[in-house]
Design goal:
It is a single chain. The protein is 83% helix and 0% strand. The chain contains four helices and no strands. It has helices at 2-53, 60-86, 91-130, 133-136. α2 runs antiparallel to α3. The chain is rod-shaped, with a radius of gyration of 27 Å.
């Protein structure tokens, strides 16, 4: 009788572990759907400013750097998923860790690109007022950023 109770407790414990891993798996799939859709925007806010900021190498260098950021995102996401599946981290933390790490980088690059664009617009406006002779020949030209 004691052996059967012991065996039942062992089987129940194994079933609990299996059910817990199944619950983790379902929660991971749910969180993955959300985090991957957010990752599209996040990686856009990293890659688009890189294309505007990095001017050396044409399109190749920004593409390589953006690909490196994607690989970094994928590695961090994979590690977080494994930790969540094993129960080391809560599922939401394991799945969102990659987005939370790259979010400040995306904000920084987007702000830097905006400041660079603003600086370029200011300097382009001042230099175009000095070189107006080139634009006098084309009377149809209209300055998209007129100085006031």
């Amino acid at each position: 009788m004691a052996n059967s109770v012991k065996e039942n407790a062992g089987v129940a414990g194994e079933n609990f572990g299996v059910l817990q891993k199944l619950i983790y798996k379902h929660q991971i799939v749910y969180q993955k759907k959300i985090t991957f859709s957010i990752a599209c925007f996040l990686l856009f806010f990293i890659g688009a400013p890189l294309g505007a900021i990095i001017r050396k190498g044409g399109l190749g260098m920004p593409a390589i750097v953006s690909t490196l950021f994607f690989i970094l995102y994928w590695i961090i996401s994979f590690i977080g998923e494994k930790y969540a599946a094993e129960g080391v981290l809560p599922v939401w933390q394991g799945m969102w860790i990659a987005s939370l790490i790259l979010l400040p980088i995306g904000i920084f690059l987007t702000r830097k690109q905006r400041m660079t664009l603003h600086f370029w617009m200011l300097t382009a406006g001042s230099s175009s007022s000095r070189n107006t002779s080139a634009f006098k020949q084309n009377r149809d030209y209209e300055d998209p950023f007129p100085l006031q």
